[in-house]
Design a protein that fits this description.
5 strands; three-stranded antiparallel beta sheet; elongated; alpha+beta; about 190 residues
Length: about 190
């Protein structure tokens, strides 16, 4: 309903409002909320935001689907335990103990942790398909068989380093570290 002319307009079937206008309003509201929360924006953030307007009901299922699709590999939905009072509780596998741990952080901190995994503009996540996929060892073996390729024979040119014997006991020694000769040793050799 237009307030000035008091004329009622009937909306079209699935059209609510212009997506460009929605993008501007949404951007303004988000930026206002960010500044009210006291958060600092990066110096170069996009001026135009992409908004896709489609009817999805309340949006719960769409949000779950998008979260599963967009941030696959960062955190799974089942690992987010609770989201209450601006705090997010999630579980993760501790890399040192290999056990599941729980952590509760603020919503802003949680978003920051998730956004650490977003690639910079112009980069793409590498996905391997076909025989390059990590689970395709059988396929690689089949390809090697069909092409009559023997990986052991192909790498035969790489010889092992000769093992040195210990001057005291005669046992074989392992190379633990290699390093360059000291600078003064090199300069004295060059000067002679």
């Amino acid at each position: 309903m237009r307030t000035k002319s008091k004329i009622k307009r009937k909306k079209e079937k699935s059209y609510l409002f212009n997506h460009k206008a929605l993008a501007k309003v949404f951007r303004a509201k988000v930026l206002e909320a960010i500044t009210q929360a006291g958060l600092v924006l990066p110096k170069q953030y996009p001026e135009k935001w992409v908004v896709d307007c489609k009817s999805v009901g309340r949006g719960d299922k769409a949000l779950v689907y998008l979260g599963r699709y967009l941030y696959r590999g960062v955190i799974q939905e089942k690992d987010i335990i609770a989201c209450k009072n601006g705090k997010v509780t999630y579980r993760f596998q501790n890399s040192k103990t290999k056990k599941l741990d729980y952590r509760t952080v603020s919503g802003a901190k949680f978003l920051w942790l998730v956004l650490q995994h977003v690639l910079p503009k112009g980069f793409r996540r590498a996905r391997n398909f076909g025989f390059l996929h990590p689970n395709s060892k059988r396929l690689i073996a089949l390809i090697q068989l069909l092409l009559k390729f023997d990986p052991n024979r192909a790498l035969a040119w790489m010889r092992k380093r000769p093992q040195w014997g210990c001057p005291c006991c005669g046992a074989k020694m392992k190379i633990i570290e290699t390093r360059l000769a000291p600078h003064f040793y090199l300069t004295s050799k060059l000067s002679t």
